[in-house]
Amino acid sequence: MNTLTIIKIGGNIIDDPSRLEGFLGSFAAIQGAKILVHGGGRIATQMGERLGITPHYVDGRRITDAETLELVTMVYGGLVNKQVVARLQSVGCNAIGLSGSDGGVLRGRKRPVGKLDYGFVGDLDAASVNVRLLQTLMDAGLTPVLAPLTYDGASGLLNTNADTIAQEIAKAFSQIAAVALIYCFEKGGLLLDAEDESSVISSIGERGFRELVGAGAVSGGMIPKLDNAFAAIRAGVQKVIIGRAEDLPGLISGSAGTQIQ
Amino acid sequence: MNTLTIIKIGGNIIDDPSRLEGFLGSFAAIQGAKILVHGGGRIATQMGERLGITPHYVDGRRITDAETLELVTMVYGGLVNKQVVARLQSVGCNAIGLSGSDGGVLRGRKRPVGKLDYGFVGDLDAASVNVRLLQTLMDAGLTPVLAPLTYDGASGLLNTNADTIAQEIAKAFSQIAAVALIYCFEKGGLLLDAEDESSVISSIGERGFRELVGAGAVSGGMIPKLDNAFAAIRAGVQKVIIGRAEDLPGLISGSAGTQIQ
């Protein structure tokens, strides 16, 4: 394997069938080894409401209780994952859907109980990614599609952040391949002016980013996203790109999104 | 691959956590290549009720409408499949859960609309089993765990009978391996007296079975089950065994269940 493209999509694209279909068509067209990591979306919330599952929040953070874990296993590991896989198959991409327990692909650790017990929430690091399994699958011409669920090492799953999964897989593979990690989100990239969608910064390094943060030009949610991207670069990931799922061909060619370097 | 053991379990074991755990422990202990096919269970019905999905029946047959397909994709492909895989991992069996679209493992055809339109229900034959993928996974030390869902060749899944899936996989592999196909159900085997659980017939051929049917000694539901078993034998499957999931070691060694030959 020389190159590997890892792409993360979230609810904003999963919840929109026509945009999802367009994205999956572009994803299928990517040459070489690739991995898709998907998050959840409103569908889990809607399904939870229909099932009468009351979300529990502590300090504004959603807690994954046993019922919620069952819900996300069904919706992320079943509905979303299998629908994405079937759609990819229909456009000629030989996708295979995996949750963390499948082949022990992603091993999570329950988040330690500090001020807050998040319940069945897991974190992972690059060492807990089963690189060998993913490589065996990709060598056989398959494209892994990962749900945001890690395996707890006993007999259960843990709800896990899809951004983190994508990042740790990227770090794990950076030892053996030139990895491009692409985060799709609701904006065209890092904006110089949060109100102006045309102000996408095409490339940025850590020093330039710190200057922007210092000048108050970068808004709250972007800071941890970019911090993670710089951490990935430091760990050996060759390219990290953020932008809109619809712009996927441009994100890959460099004509759209923000490249973090 | 010299030998392959294919086991089908249904709702009676899936719905009972402690019996399921015992079964999975015995399954994990089976030497050599193996595949588990699971059906649904009451959990899909219960989840459907909680979601307010009204089952549709025509002539006493349940129809898989779009909403029901979504339900079974979540429950069979997500919840049941991933829980079984996680439990197998916890007892040292490197399981990988698959629905039909994953790697295009099982290709179904929508059941033709005759007197009745079953909706999103699929049938498959041995030629639509992706033997190469299953073999690649087993060669890598993985144990496939299949949900009762086939891929429709376009962008969707089809609700498919788990007995049929197990049988067609067995037929497909009978060309290249000595296959033992084990159907677990609620009885100890084929009973000479339906009221007497101790009257298990330890082995039976097609002629002996026809005689029992002629004498009215075999009850309704058993006839198609055994017909399928004889069809598998004729197609080259080496052994077909029916019996109770709890008796798995005995079903394999020949000390329990009914062997069809």
Which structural class should the secondary elements of chain A be placed in?
alpha/beta
The total of helices of chain A stands at 9
- The spatial strand order of the largest sheet of chain A comes to 5-8-2-1-11-13-14-12
How many extended strands of chain A? 14
Major beta-sheet overview of chain A: 8 strands, mixed
The helix content of chain A is: 25-40%
Beta-strand percentage range of chain A: 15-25%
Distance between the termini of chain A: 22 Å
Assembly state (oligomeric): homodimer
Rounded average pLDDT of chain A: 94
The stretches of 5 or more residues of chain A where confidence is low (pLDDT under 50) are: none
Cα-based radius of gyration of chain A, to the nearest Å? 18 Å
Q: What shape does the CA trace of chain A take?
A: globular
What is the succession of H and E elements of chain A?
EHHEHEEHEEEHEEEHEEHHEHE
Q: Which chains make the largest contact? A: A-B, 42 and 42 residues
Describe this structure in words.
Chain A has 261 residues and is an alpha/beta fold. Helices cover 38% and strands 21% of the residues of chain A. Chain A has helices spanning 11-14, 17-29, 42-50, 66-90, 131-139, 162-173, 206-214, 222-234, 248-253; strands at residues 3-9, 33-38, 56-58, 61-63, 95-98, 109-110, 122-123, 143-146, 149-151, 157-159, 178-184, 203-204, 239-243, 258-260. In chain A, the strands form four sheets. Chain A has an eight-stranded mixed sheet, sandwiched between helices. Chain A is globular and about 45 Å long. The mean pLDDT of chain A is 94. The A-B interface holds A 47, 50-52, 70, 73-79, 81-83, 85-87, 89-90, 94-99, 101-104, 133, 136, 140, 142, 149, 151-157 and B 47, 50-52, 70, 73-79, 81-83, 85-87, 89-90, 94-99, 101-104, 133, 136, 140, 142, 149, 151-157.
